[in-house]
Specification:
Layout (H helix, E strand, L loop, with lengths): L4 E7 L5 H10 L5 E4 L9 E7 L5 H11 L14 E5 L4 H6 L5 E3 L3 E5 L12 E5 L11 H19 L10 E5 L5 H8 L4 E6 L2 H13 L8 E4 L2 H8 L4 E7 L2 H7 L3 H4 E13 L3 H10 L2 E9 L2 E8 L5
Parallel strand pairs: 6-7, 8-9, 8-11, 9-10, 11-12
Antiparallel strand pairs: 1-3, 1-4, 2-3, 5-6, 12-14, 13-14
Helix pairs in contact: 4-5, 8-10
């Protein structure tokens, strides 16, 4: 007789989507997927499959309690969790069937590792990702904002005659999650990426996703830690481009490190902030000598593009 499963179902608001995809594997739930109606991509539903024998009622209740605080930074309550008992099935096909190729901007394609490139997307730059391995699958607005900003910067450089895409740039990715932003930078021609995250699983996921993309174990260079770990990876040579997709309070705390991470004339892309948090963060950046030269918004989320205030506009 095959296994019996509990199928977890819950709404996945934009604010919580990637936090849920990051947290569930830490809690022992690895069979996770997202689905949404094609006509309403914003109505995302999170699904997970748990072996009944491993998840009695008290364990499932504890799981719900562990997920509840994820909404606190956004003042969002955890959506209702629904449990459905179901007979044995090939869960590997069940959860994977809900993932789809995800084109971003004009050039990029985020592709779950087991899928082939659709013929109509054959001309795009492919970033293969193992969904759920760490924060950053490309679907969350903050991740998309960063990917689109990287593509826009690549286009600007090409139009200015500075080479192909991000060619020659050294990139620092602070809070790398799944590594998706660094991988996108490399696909767009960056010379190198140094990445760090305080979550050890993020370091592992970044290395694994780099391998999925044929980039080898040493590209990008990754460490577990925060800004000081990233500074060490850069070996005293600040990067040309800083990527930081973290929550606004964390960005604020990290501002003093930016001068060690970003070279004079370099560009920083800061996301993970709610739109109403942007004015306060801009003030903090200005006080520390950084100039916001652009702001982009998507849904309730924003991205700031910064340079040193001493750089000529």
């Amino acid at each position: 007789m095959g296994l019996v499963w509990w199928r977890l179902e819950m709404a996945a608001p934009a604010e919580l989507e990637e936090s849920l995809l990051w947290k569930l594997p830490l809690l022992g739930v690895h069979r996770v997927a997202l689905q949404h109606p094609p006509e309403a991509p914003e109505q995302r539903q999170l699904l997970a499959w748990l072996p009944e024998s491993d998840w009695p009622a008290d364990e499932r209740q504890e799981l719900e309690r562990a997920l509840a605080p994820l909404g606190d930074p956004f003042q969002v309550a955890l959506p209702q969790v629904r449990w459905q008992r179901q007979a044995d099935e090939d869960w590997s096909l069940s959860w994977k069937s809900h993932w789809r190729p995800d084109p971003v901007g004009e050039r990029l394609l985020v592709l779950p590792a087991w899928l082939e490139v659709p013929p109509e997307q054959a001309g795009r730059l492919v970033i293969r990702i193992d969904p759920g391995s760490a924060f950053g699958t490309g679907s969350h607005p903050t991740t998309r904002l960063c990917l689109e900003a990287l593509e826009a910067l690549a286009g600007e450089r090409e139009r200015a005659g500075l080479g192909q895409g991000l060619g020659g740039l050294r990139v620092a990715d602070l809070g790398c999650g799944s590594g998706i932003l660094g991988l996108a930078a490399l696909r767009l021609g960056a010379a190198s990426v140094a990445a760090a995250d305080t979550d050890p699983l993020a370091e592992r996921a970044t290395r694994q996703n780099a391998a999925l993309n044929g980039l080898g174990p040493s590209v990008p260079a990754v460490a577990t830690g925060s800004a000081e770990a990233l500074v060490a990876l850069l070996e005293g040579r600040p990067a040309d481009l800083l990527l930081c997709n973290i929550l606004a309070p964390v960005i604020e705390a990290l501002i003093p490190w930016f001068e060690h991470l970003l070279s004079p004339g370099g560009i920083g892309l800061l996301s993970g902030l709610l739109v109403d948090q942007a004015p306060g963060l801009e003030q903090d950046l200005a006080a520390a000598g950084w100039r916001v030269e652009g702001r982009v918004e998507q849904d309730r989320w924003g991205l700031l593009r910064i340079r040193s205030a001493s750089d000529v506009a």
